[in-house]
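Hey there, shall we discuss this one?
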Amino acid sequence: MVRQRRMVHRFERRQAPDGVLRDVLDKALHAPSAGFSQGLELVVLRDPAGVDLFFRTTDPEGLSEKVFSVSSWRPPTVVLVFVDSTAYTDRYAEPDKIGFGLDDPERWPVPYWYVDAGMS
């Protein structure tokens, strides 16, 4: 439950049950987005080889392994969050939103695609 969240310092080696993962990701995809732009994509890595490739690719020098032991920091599932700024600018180019002048990403005072991704 979101209300009972806590900081995680150690990950269990077991996968979250499929139903739990689906529920969490469903809630993330239903978070508010500016203008209901829905410019969010989630990619889930659950296969151990895929998770390992992710960490080898994003931390090729193994810096995190020098600070933490692999068993205590590497989670069994990784969710990658991608944003699409054009979903926002396209939405704000529609007739009901064009008056805000946000059909150009340079005009956004805050890039809400990142804010919305963080909220998700």
In short: Strands lie at 40-45, 78-83. The two ends are 14 Å apart (CA to CA).
